[in-house]
Amino acid sequence: MSQPTLTMFYQFDPWGSSIGGIQTIIRLFIKYAHDEFNIRLVGIEDDPQATMGVWKEAEFEGKLIQFFSLFAVPDDNIRSLVPTTVKYTAALLGKDFSSDFVHFHRLEPTLASLKWSGDKTLFIHNDIRKQMTATESKKAILWRRFPGVYFALEKALVQQFDQIFSCNSESATWYQQQYPMLADRVSFLKNIVDNEVFFPWSTEECDRNRRELAQKLGINEDSRFILFAGRLHPQKDPILLVRSLAALANSKIHLLIAGEGELRSEIQAQITQLGLTEQVTMLGPVAQSELSRLHRITDAFVLTSSYEGLPLVALEALACGTPVITTRCGETPNLLSVDSGIVVQERTPTAIAEAIRKILSNLSVYPPEACVRSAQPYEARAVINSVYEDMLKRWEQKSLTTD
Questions:
Q1: The pLDDT value given to residue 138
Q2: What angle do CA 262, 268, 270 make, to 5 degrees?
């Protein structure tokens, strides 16, 4: 019996520096892929000099995969005038990437797949309703200017999918209600964290690394660190976090911002305006190994997003033993326990500052063991294994009926 082929579609270079939860999920679906599957990825290149438009065999995370790049984008962390999604969708049109299994992580590119054969799955990573109605700048998502067009497009495209996975339980329920004829195809899928990369250190190791970082930054060794990691994008609203730090009015608390995006210059301006240049360090994009180190040596990870699905970075913090502070959005509030984090009821600097103050003054109430326990059900290997097992079962059944 031949091997089934899974082809994944997303606008990134898995060997590049593209930041985001979707990118992490795809990388983990490659890392923990079953050996029974041929894995293919249709993406883009970071390197404009790379060869485009042909299948290339390469190794990623110890797996031999086939990679097809449609075009090059040197830095996809910064949005261009024409969104990368539009370019990616246009580049797919007229091509046929039919496969035993097809995985999409954005709706728009599925315009090209209507006539393709294969078992098709759509992953939904945000709560679409809240994404469309969030109150921050309409630039955060251009579809917010044309919600009627988006939902009409969605209605026309979702019917091609054999499975629709949402990492947000409310969003999954909404899709089942919105498309009752597809209700049995829609399900909630836990988001994932790689426990081989994100795990806690001993107290001694955390303290030593914390002192080393303070020395490197030239700040007091008794400084306490809080962390933001992700795209510097209006959805994540890191500027609200900077304003929350100002509201704390505590010079011993130092904010680390790991990530890149279009808000970088605006964040830097806000830091200067609020007199926080000695209390905030912008690190730029960081590798997973460095991010796991940052999670372990910080006292709290803070999410100030206006909408979310279930951000992987929150799971990564918890898996490292670090409590999470989050606004009430996405799936994160549902996974936190009273001893692994705080859900802030109001998206205001004062409310977020109070939550940070509460955790930093009561660290023993939020022990690493409780944080790790909250992340345990989301272990990547187990969740991904269940998806591949189900795919293999469906493929074997289909093979028997067509023989």
A1: 47
A2: 105
CB 323 within 8 A of CB 340: yes
CA distance 127 to 233: 16
Give tens-digit pLDDT for 16-48: 878 788 999 999 999 999 999 999 999 999 888
- Please give the Cα distance from 119 to 115 (Å, whole number): 12
Can you tell me the distance from the alpha carbon of 230 to that of 29, in angstroms, rounded to the nearest whole number?
Answer: 20
Residues 6+ apart with CB under 8 A from 346: none
Alpha helices in 249-367 (DSSP H): 264-273, 288-297, 312-319, 332-335, 349-360
Domains, the chain, with CATH or none: 5-192+379-402 (3.40.50.2000), 203-378 (3.40.50.2000)
Of the candidates 235, 233, 312, which has an alpha carbon nearest to the alpha carbon of residue 25?
A: 312
> Which pLDDT score, from 0 to 100, does residue 275 have?
97
Q: For residue 6, which of 120, 144, 95 has the smallest C-alpha distance? A: 120
Condensed to tens digits (0 to 9), the pLDDT of residues 233-275 reads 888 999 999 999 999 999 999 999 999 988 999 999 999 999 9
Give whole-number Cα distances, 30 to 142, 320, 323, in Å. Answer: 30, 23, 29
